[in-house]
UniProtKB/TrEMBL annotation:
Cellular localization per UniProt: Cytoplasm
Stretches assigned to the Response regulatory domain: 5-121
Protein name per the record: Transcriptional regulatory protein
Alphabetized Pfam families for the sequence: Response_reg
SMART domains on file: REC
Keyword Phosphoprotein attributed: yes
Record's keyword terms, sorted: Activator, Cytoplasm, DNA-binding, Phosphoprotein, Transcription, Transcription regulation, Two-component regulatory system
Sites of 4-aspartylphosphate modification: D56
Signal peptide: none
């Protein structure tokens, strides 16, 4: 498996150096950029397209949460590990809903940092590079989703697995209507699950334009 590219967002130079030194000790990861403010981070992340972003919550211009929301809104396909001193339950819950794969509370030791990255690499390996997925592959991937983002009210694990299985079986980008026919569900139900997966950067949305009317959304696994 190729190295996982990493981008670090941290406004404290000392903490930034610590995070970089921690990262260097773990094989399989490569730092490709860093930023000390949200706007610079945003532009560089779009340009460099890292696989993983280590994101601090408190930045001088906008919060890490605001940056994460912006990245998710634009469907930028990255995974995020939050690094922050914030401990309040509301903030942590919001970050989980936005699909952060882990949450490191400052100050943390190397062993916890290492666990976060190794767990991420293991979960990523469950899906990246597979031409098709067995049920156990999907179950493992679902576990990584549930570990990073709580399913919203109205969504459940069983239906999520059916939607993912349908995406794998079709092996190409599909509309919500096409996938609904594949899995035997209502189109509106399937769309809810697809949009959730897109919001946490597990599914990519492509807009295809016809001769008239609105563009059609096509969904595919990242």
């Amino acid at each position: 498996m190729t190295e996982i590219t990493v981008f670090i967002v941290e406004d404290d130079p000392m903490v930034l150096d610590v995070n970089k030194s921690f990262l260097e000790k773990i094989g399989g990861f490569r730092l490709i950029g860093e930023a000390m403010d949200g706007h610079s981070a945003y532009s560089q992340i779009k340009l460099l397209e890292p696989k993983l972003v280590l994101l601090d919550m408190y930045l001088p211009d906008l919060s890490g949460l605001e940056l994460l929301i912006k990245l998710r809104f634009e469907r930028i396909p990255i995974d995020v590990i939050m690094i922050t001193a914030a401990r309040d339950a509301k903030t942590i819950q919001e970050i989980k809903r936005l699909g952060a794969v882990d949450y490191l509370v400052k100050p943390f030791r190397f062993d916890r940092f290492q666990k976060a990255l190794l767990d991420y690499r293991k979960n990523r390996k469950n899906i990246v590079g597979l031409e098709s997925m067995k049920q156990e592959d999907i179950d493992a991937w679902i576990g990584s989703i549930e570990g990073g983002a709580e399913l919203p009210k109205g969504l459940n694990e069983i239906t999520m697995k059916q939607v993912l299985t349908g995406l794998v079986e079709l092996e190409h980008s599909v509309t919500a209507e096409q996938l609904a026919l594949q899995v035997g569900m209502a189109r509106v139900t399937v769309r809810k699950y697809l949009d959730f997966l897109a919001n946490i950067a597990k599914v990519e949305i492509e807009l295809k334009y016809g001769n008239v009317g609105r563009p059609t959304k096509y969904y595919s696994l990242l």
